[in-house]
Specification:
Helix content: under 10%
CATH class: Mainly Beta
Structural class: mainly beta
Strand content: over 45%
Number of strands: 12
Protein name: DUF4412 domain-containing protein
Oligomer: single chain
Radius of gyration: 16 Å
Largest sheet: 12 strands, mixed
Number of helices: 0
CATH topology: outer membrane lipoprotein receptor (LolB), chain A
């Protein structure tokens, strides 16, 4: 595979995907814990939604790539949602390498990010991301137009800012290159 396929100009921002897609995002902590989530991404709206069910608890989140805001809600807290502190997009800036590989049937180029190694397809879909203490990958990738309604936070939720320093609070960027 030719690295020219993935030639890229210098990036003023992270290499966000350029097409809509959905798939199964699988995150592992390397100690036996695996989390499987459904990911939807809208390139036009620059929003990502993740839905997961872990230990009997359904959770969803929507992240606005431009503002960095992520709203997280769960069936365990009816009517409530948390705004996770903004993610600094500079943390996801990266540099493509000359290394290419195939992951889950997709050709990708390896990028060195500040805190991870990501393998991105030609349309910047993160097919694999690894870092200290985690590994993640996108399975069952479907490049398909996403309905904008998928990225709307349910109406009627009381959205509160997540207090800083909560033990076990989610790291909004862990396992994702954007």
């Amino acid at each position: 595979m030719s690295a020219a396929l993935f030639a890229s100009a210098a990036h003023a921002e992270p290499p966000y995907p350029t097409v809509d897609f959905q798939g199964d995002w699988v995150l592992s902590d390397g100690k036996g814990m695996n989390v499987r989530a459904t990911m939807h991404y809208s390139a036009a709206n620059r929003k990502m939604r993740i839905n997961m069910n872990q230990q009997g608890m359904a959770m969803s989140s929507v992240r606005d790539m431009d503002s960095g805001d992520m709203i997280l809600w769960s069936d365990q807290m009816p009517g409530m949602a948390m705004r996770v502190p903004n993610v600094d997009v500079d943390e996801f800036d990266g540099t493509p390498t000359d290394e290419t590989k195939t992951v889950n049937g997709e050709d990708c180029i390896v990028w060195r990010m500040k805190q991870a190694i990501a393998c991105l397809t030609a349309d910047n879909i993160p097919i694999e991301v690894t870092g200290e203490g985690f590994g993640s990958g996108l399975e069952n990738l479907q490049r398909t137009e996403q309905d904008p309604a998928v990225f709307e936070v349910p109406s009627g939720l009381n959205v509160m800012d997540m207090p800083a320093g909560i033990p076990g609070a989610p790291n909004p960027g862990q396992g994702l290159p954007f």
